[in-house]
């Protein structure tokens, strides 16, 4: 049975109050069409788990914070977009604690791999300082193991994962290009329902087995996103707007 | 980002160097040939412009890449080839990509030789603070990957201006901000001075900006420090 679906059908799994994980790294390789769908349908009260809030300047996930659709952010940072930074400083976006990015990634991986959590030494003596995170009901849990102290970091899971690949087949096998793989496979595995948005949907057998970045069984829905050419234009134009690339003469 | 494509200004006047350029130039002298290097954003990124000609290093990006190169021309920019700040980069011959968790494993587990990180404050124990300031009653903006770097990279170089806008020293006896890394800094590079941090804590003044003496540095530094026997002018690669 093909996993290829219309965007509306796949995104129907997301509702007000959903707990979402979105693949991305400061906005790179994020599922643009899925995020636009959330913005258009004004799905609110979301808990969002992501490595960072996204790319600044009115790009992608930034619109979610600007419209007040995200209630809580679980991440390593709050200010890679001005929209998330403004919402947080105006008390309209809850961040209970900040995690080192490697810790967020390992919490997601634990959720993906069926583990209860992980032991992380990063931030000991820093993130456990009293008063640093007043929103936390209890202090961060720690454990001594072989003479060294670690945080006990619980696994993270979500209702729905939104990830972004280059191309996928109807079995849900996903291939990535270059630096876009990130932790998208872990994210797909850490949610009850995983939607992948891709530039191209290809016949089964097109993607070489050793190039599959997310195996099909981890994916529930494949949706058509921007073509690669559209995606390149989309990012280049925003990078020009941010001054990260030089404008092109018409 | 690639030393090979950078343009080195021909003998610029010392007095006309900006604080950012001074710091970036001096940080470049900390990098050794063949090292795996992670540069933080801001001043540290500029360091790559001042690496000596012919030096070959491997740049690491947190999002999962060894061996990236300079920014591409606009129409060559590929939306799937980006660095840790979501800026377009290029991949040099020999580059490799890896999953994000592998990249952070490399950071925690000593596979990165050196990192240059910007800082809000440093102190004489080798503590580095760069992820949190108080804004509107909240700690802001978050560590990103900086705590992972401070935890596991072999040599952490702190890059910052010596004094803040109010004229106060950013090289403290004891940092008052939430830390990014505890006792992690090996070298502090400012626009005025270079300090080594002793393994057991404590600073040694190694260099000062040309024309400045030990007492000039003492006057603008809150931290206590010793003076190296071979104390001399800052190496700026000019």
Automatic annotation (TrEMBL), chain A:
Gene3D superfamilies: Glutaconate Coenzyme A-transferase
Keyword Cell cycle: no
The keyword Transferase appears for this protein: yes
Coiled coil feature spans: none
Top-level taxon of origin: Bacteria
Pfam families, A to Z: CoA_trans (PF01144)
Keywords: Transferase
InterPro entries named in the record: 3-oxoacid_CoA-transf_A (IPR012792), CoA_trans_fam_I (IPR004165), NagB/RpiA_transferase-like (IPR037171)
Any GO molecular function: CoA-transferase activity
Protein name per its UniProtKB record: Acyl CoA--acetate/3-ketoacid CoA transferase subunit alpha
Annotated source species: Rhodoplanes roseus
TrEMBL record, chain B:
Coiled-coil spans in chain: none
Keyword terms of this UniProt record: Transferase
Keyword Transferase: yes
InterPro entries attached to this UniProt entry: CoA_trans_fam_I, NagB/RpiA_transferase-like
GO MF assignments: CoA-transferase activity
PANTHER family in the cross-refs: ACETATE COA-TRANSFERASE SUBUNIT ALPHA (PTHR13707:SF60), KETOACID-COENZYME A TRANSFERASE (PTHR13707)
Protein name: Succinyl-CoA--3-ketoacid-CoA transferase
Organism of origin: Rhodoplanes roseus
